[in-house]
Amino acid sequence: MTLQPVTTAHGRQPIPVVLNGRALEPNRRIPLNVDWVEKVRVNTSAVERRAATQVARRTVKKENQAAWLLRAITCIDLTTLSGDDSVDRVKRLCAKARNPLQPHLVKGLGIEDLHITTGAVCVYHSFVETAVKALEGSGIPVAAVSAGFPAGLSPLAERVAEIHRSVEAGASEIDIVITRAHVFNGDWQALYDEIAAFKEACGTAHMKAILGTGDLMTLRNVARASWVAMMAGADFIKTSTGKEAVNATLPVSLTMVRCIRDYAERTGMSVGFKPAGGIRTAKQSLDWLALMKEELGRPWLEPSLFRIGASGMLGDIERQLEHFVTGRYSATYRHPVA
Questions:
Q1: Which residues have a catalytic role annotated?
Q2: pLDDT tens, 10-67?
Q3: CA dihedral defined by 276, 274, 142, 299, rounded to 10 degrees?
Q4: Using CA atoms, how far apart are residues 319 and 331, in angstroms rounded to an integer?
Q5: Are strands 269-270 and 173-177 parallel, antiparallel or unpaired?
Q6: Per-residue DSSP letter, 238
Q7: pTM of the predicted protein model
Q8: How far apart are the first and last CA of the chain?
Q9: Is the Cα torsion angle 100, 17, 202, 136 positive or negative in sign?
Q10: Is the dihedral of CA 127, 133, 137, 138 positive or negative?
Q11: Cβ atoms within 10 A of the Cβ of 61, count?
Q12: N or C: at which end does the chain have fewer Cβ atoms within 10 angstroms?
């Protein structure tokens, strides 16, 4: 089979970011426009109907499915955020990020020249140096969860200092978490100032703003928080910490993706998107990829603008590719992640 080369977050030149014929620039902080935020409306019923159609359609098959699953691998933020994380676990995770597919699958797919890796490795601050050392020479970025993850309730100065420490340790991406109370209170200036302070602390590191959508109650709150985060300079907006009772869902994702589209049309700037939490199967990865393609277009199938926060999902993708190559499904234990 012949598959097209993929563009990784750390490798080849990314394709131009164009939406509706307009070339977009990377996002940068702009002044808070409260009118934009307060005029946001979301038709929840319409969003839920549209999201329901996403999983009801016939999916891609055979060679096309294999190609899409390879694309999904390049967009994974391979993650471990458990209380029992250890240096050895992080090292194993990094080894899997470097070589996400077993050699016989790479050979069977004929993709030796693509050098496929995951989009990033995401860890707690304590393991940033371990991950950076384990990934040395691979070009795979290390993302650190920060800013009082997962609750975001520690003092602001401590959260900013935590970001500085992670960047100094070598993290090139920082996943921050917002104070949800600012959204509930409609205190958009406080939310903007908080995210802007985090962005300033990140320096040249890319910042993903975690909204904690499972805690935000309504899609309107999700949309308004998305707008504030983008105006404050977020490079990505991200659904969840993975620790909420409800994490990434298609209705929430559709709402955020359409905010990205509207923001791009209004400002001429692009923002990435990262669903995280509860995404475990290869089929789910195809649902989210299709959503990005249909709502935002081809540039948002690149790891520079789309990531999936997951760990177990990679094992299922590997099983599906094994079936494509051999015609047989293998046992889950044959595809360990960490």
A1: 175, 238, 274
A2: 444 457 899 888 899 999 999 999 999 999 999 999 999 999 988 887 678 889 999 9
A3: 150
A4: 8
A5: unpaired
A6: E
A7: 0.93
A8: 29
A9: positive
A10: negative
A11: 9
A12: N
What percentage of residues in the chain have a pLDDT greater than 70? 95
Residue 5 pLDDT greater than 60, yes or no: no
Residue (of 258, 201, 202, 269) closest to 230 by Cα position: 269
Instruction: Establish whether the linkage from the previous residue to 275 is cis, with ω within 30° of 0.
Output: no
Q: Give the bridge partners for 143, in sequence order.
A: 122, 173
CA 89/CA 85 separation, integer angstroms: 6
Evaluated on CA atoms 190, 212, 25, 38, the torsion sign reads negative
C-alpha angle 226-199-40 in degrees, rounded to nearest 5: 15
Q: In this structure, are residues 93 and 315 in contact, taking their beta carbons and an 8 Å threshold?
A: no
Q: Around Cβ 1, how many Cβ atoms within 10 Å?
A: 12
In eight-state DSSP terms, residue 169 is H
Number of H helices, E strands in the chain: 13, 12
pLDDT of residue 7: 45
Instruction: Let me know: does 195 contact 209? Beta carbons within 8 Å.
Output: yes
> Which residue is listed with tokens 């401590």?
158
φ and ψ at residue 311, rounded to 5 degrees? -135, -60
Q: Which residues neighbour 85 within 8 Å (Cβ) at sequence distance 6 or greater?
A: 123, 124, 126, 127
**Under 8 Å between Cβ of 260 and 227:** no
pLDDT above 90 covers a percentage of the chain that reads: 84
